Amino acid sequence: MRKFLRVVVGLCVSGGVVFPARAEEELQKLINRLLAPPTIQAEPGFIAKLLVPPGHLYDPLWLVPRAGAMWTNDDGREEKDKGSRLFAITREGQISVLADIGKLLPVVGFDVAPQNFGQFGGQIFTVAQAKVGMEGLVVNHIIQRVDPQQDYAASVFCTLPSHGQVNQGISSFGADARFGPEGSPFAGKLFAIATGNNSVYQVTPDGQCMPFVSFDPERFGAPAGLAFSADGQILLVTVARSALLGASQEPAGMIARVRPDGIIEDEPLVRGLVRPMGMDLAPKEFGAYAGQVFVTDAGSFEIPVPMTQALAADGKVYRVTSEGKLQLVASGFVNPMGVRFMGTTLWVNDINGDFIAGKRELPDGFIVEMYWP
After folding, report:
1. Mind listing the domains of the chain with CATH numbers?
2. Cα–Cα distance between 250 and 135 in angstroms, integer?
3. What pTM value is reported for the model?
4. What is the pLDDT of residue 5?
5. Distance between alpha carbon 213 and the CA centroid of its chain, in Å?
């Protein structure tokens, strides 16, 4: 905590003059406000629990259930030319390190390879920046291979090539990544998002990174999250016409449906979202909601500038009913990202205020667990 306090103290120094002695007390109050636990309101039929409160993670982005725990990538901290970490979190909220700082290029999205992905079954594949910081955020991203059997050693698997006209084709601002379900037309491939050029890429075991589908910026917008239909025949992609970052409350977001041949179906799964991000399908353990898509909506998706800015708690979680309607599940989130089921529970990642190296390095991210009693 003292490290984070010094970050704020640094913002309160001008011309070598530091605030009086009581400044530390005031700054501690500020830190307490910035790391205050959120108030999540669950709709009737659901219960929400703050599993990992602010103070432990910087920007927890996406979730992957694995071996009775949930794995997540935390997009925070940098060390020389490396950045971000991978964690495993138990059902009790205990955090353990998988790949610590200094091992990885900044991980944006990730998934674990199934056994049908060539010789790489069980290894971690990530969408990553090729460099740390803003310089790496705005250039072509890479697919990074991480081997848990080799102390999480990482290597570049391939580079997402430039494609299309949006953003001059640059495959920047990476997002979610998912392997196709076994037995489906998408099997044996990793699908990865580059929000910068509105594209989803497909990655094959032979090291090829190829564009799979691109979304028209006027009709659909930029993609963010991935999932697959219950029968594995459709790739679901969250898209929004508004910019990824910046205040907007235009309900132009939707969940698009893409066929195995890369053709976007005319009618989306659902419309009316603001800035939809992650998705998952409820398993049979979730009773009456089994098979329904649950999706996070980050709303205005504000980035705090200055770092003391209060952020709107306008993030929500919805489910898509069997009639194709949006139904609110929970509200009170700030910038929710990944959402995944594990057994009878639903986990939601929220980055809260964004990690900005050298400017805003607060561990204010949190994870909420929801269940249906």
Report:
1. 2-8+39-371 (2.120.10.30)
2. 30
3. 0.91
4. 43
5. 20
